[in-house]
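Researcher: Here's the sequence for the chain we discussed earlier.
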Amino acid sequence: MDKVINESENHFFSGKKSTSEIKGKIFIGITQLAVILIIAILFIILGIIIYQGRTKFSWEFISTFPTNGMTEGGIFPALIGTFILVIVMSIAAVPFGTITALYLTEYASENSKFAAAVRFSVRTLAVVPSIIFGLFGLGFFIQFLGAGADTVFNDGQLRWGQPNILWASLTMSLLTLPVIIVSVEESLKTIPRELREASLALGATKWQTIKKVVLPGSVSGIMTGTILAVSRGAGEVAPILFTGAAYYLATLPGSLSDQFMNLGYHVYIMSTQSSDVEKTMPIQFATTLVLLILTLSLNVVAVIIRSRIRRKAK
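Model: Thanks. This is the structure I predict for it:
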């Protein structure tokens, strides 16, 4: 009798185990399929861009100005404008985002209502549509700050109260600020509290602990935030429509109060307002390819800087 019961139990559990193994294999297959699908989509997009833009992509295309109503020539002013925009945006956003993350992690108490309000504001900013940032930049930076500066310092002469590369960069820095704050804050949280306590026990001040212990240990998070900000800032178009991007310029921006051309905006113009959209298709794909290369290059520079800082910290 006992033998019959044991055989029944073994049969029951073996059947249950077999079903669980099958479900596990199906789940693994679904996850692998999802990964393969994502990689395939990425390679398809890159393949189309490279294939369609290969005929136009050249040194002449990168280093010359547009000609013949932008249906011929290159994208040099758009490339330089995008590069300046990303650099100024990073200079404005990265320090401010890092300082904010430091306050939230190192100085604010866990039950601080002010810190909770700041985190809520950051999360809210992260989901605001980018076009809203553009309208904010138009109203605050151009019509309020810029027009006010012209009234006070330039006797009403128009200089800062108009779209330019500075206001566009600051608007983009606001757009990318939540990404930097969240990534830096998460990186700061990974530093063990015991290290902070040991530093304070040895007589170091709060600031010395942050400078010598916390920041070197979280530099990878800061650079990761910078990389994400650069990637998003280089490709966004909506915020700069109102704050600085120009349809066409015959010269490069000479100061931060000048308008500029942008690679993303250039693609938008070519695909929607060109006199001959079909003729400019190679230009659109080649411009997109240059934008990808520029973003990748800036990310590589950030990764190299991060690696060097890590080696020095060791």
